[in-house]
């Protein structure tokens, strides 16, 4: 009834407040007993999941169906060189041609066209879901990640770190190499394998004689354990990492760089594959 009486005020942001005050006043006048120990559970509770329900066809596509999605076409070097480029086309062009490798000029300058022009090709955005631990909901396509190549730095800084912590690098190399499993391991209770496990086969025959369901895993397999290790190191490159560490003259970023050099040098000596990535963000729509 209260909402029906205020049909002409549905657009007002004070409507819910006025109705709530009216209901609170009526409840006080009714003098209903209140027992704070009672715990009543609602038979139905709306958790607002529909707010994060993305349809296959977005509202933007329905409003603006004439806007086509940008196409990135991977072409060969000959196709890239023979095609006439549209000079006034920007990063929002309908079609962008991409080479799998960078294009270098005929002169052996050691620098690609991208480095000479000083402009990196626009990165392909990737959308990732995020789990909201407070609402216990997964938000689809919540973060946008733009992958970019790092700018080359000074090699002398890395060399100084290697010389300074040479003994620690050797110790790390020894610890990582100790993780290498060796020898042949025998796996029992396998449905398919190299040979029959006699103990398991005897138990299965006993179970069959007793009228029970036998365990079909009567085979065993010999597996040779080899080293299989790869490392991906993700470094936080946010602005806050430029703060000084308490009681030290080094910043958080400097310590992270030194630790990265130590680990990378030890892995390189062993021969294990590794990669170093960094990230910073300017909101959830711009994570680089």
TrEMBL record:
InterPro entries: NorD/CobT (IPR051928)
UniProt-listed PANTHER family: NORD PROTEIN
Protein name: von Willebrand factor type A
Species annotation: mine drainage metagenome
Upper classification of the organism: unclassified sequences, metagenomes, ecological metagenomes
